[in-house]
Amino acid sequence: MKSVVIFDRYNGVDLKPAEMFNDYVKLTAESIQSFFLTNSELNKCTCPGCGSQQVSTTFEKFGLKYNECENCGTLYISPRPADNDIVRYYRESPARILWRERLTRSTDKTRKNKIVNPRFAWIEDSTLEYLDNQKHYVDINTDQEVYIEAIEKSQVFDRKTLINPFLQINSEKKDLSIVDKGLDSIELEGDVDVVSLFEVCDHTSDINLLFQKVSQMLQPGGICFITSILASGFDFQVLWDKSENLFAPDRLNVFSVKGFRNLFTRHNFECLEFSTPGILDVENVKATAGRNPDVTLPKFVQNMIVDGDDSVRQAFQEFLQTNLLSSYARIVIRKNG
Questions:
Q1: Is the pLDDT of residue 250 over 60?
Q2: What is the side-by-side strand order in the sheet with 55-61?
Q3: Which among 78, 68, 80 has a CA at the least distance from the CA of 256?
Q4: Per-residue pLDDT tens for 153-171?
Q5: Is residue 318 one of the residues assigned to a domain?
Q6: 330: which strand partners?
Q7: Tell me, what CATH number does 133's domain have?
Q8: What does the DSSP 8-state code read for residue 80?
Q9: Does the pTM exceed 0.85?
């Protein structure tokens, strides 16, 4: 199985300007109250990774309860809103409107250069590596305009389909087919070569339905690209409930490496690549500890990350990448059979 290390540097503020991100977090708390806690039914669930019912710790964020799976270490919200309510939230909530119209547009150039373009280079290169004849590409639950632009520009695929995008897509985009239906209504059995899930696992309520549908869509040997955040990553393990990036529905599920592997095995997928090429773990811990007086770091972490020099922090971030200990994951899985 492949694992990739990426030597790149950028600052988290380049992607999430502090003032706008604070506004986003405030609106998220208000939107969760109005969309999920007031008008929606919440349903209990088992661990989305391994299916265990055993919980070791719990805490609340914005009125929703996070559970840590005792078996695989996956962090997940239960009880939780249904996927239809989550789709409505992403399309209509004031928080996500701010995210689309202000935050992502203000960082558009950096996102393209540092995230989107490398992500699609990864998809195209890996597709050509693993598949002999690739024709049909499907992206599920797209929520950023920069992804649409990159999908349009790709020359690797003859057909491109967007399923249930969280955006209003211009109908004049002729080389994109748009299927605006819930996953339970999708009828693309064995018709797809490549699927992409950009942070989709993080905010999907019925994760088993998602992977059942991905498996049904893909031809035997077809591949799925996943990007996600990991509970087993360094900054989440250190900051835990104090993590500033941890809240619903963006982080409804925060899988561990073990949790993801259990999920893939359960749905008959082979893992071709599992990398954690994140570059912000150390910066996130240092910045959060500096802003939040309630964060108490272990002495070793304090000495290395807060009081240490840049070369030590950089070397440690590279260590995290190499050993699957960063909190950002990129994954390639292949349908067996």
A1: yes
A2: 55-61, 64-69, 75-77, 253-254
A3: 68
A4: 888 999 999 988 887 776 5
A5: no
A6: 227, 275
A7: 3.40.50.150
A8: B
A9: yes
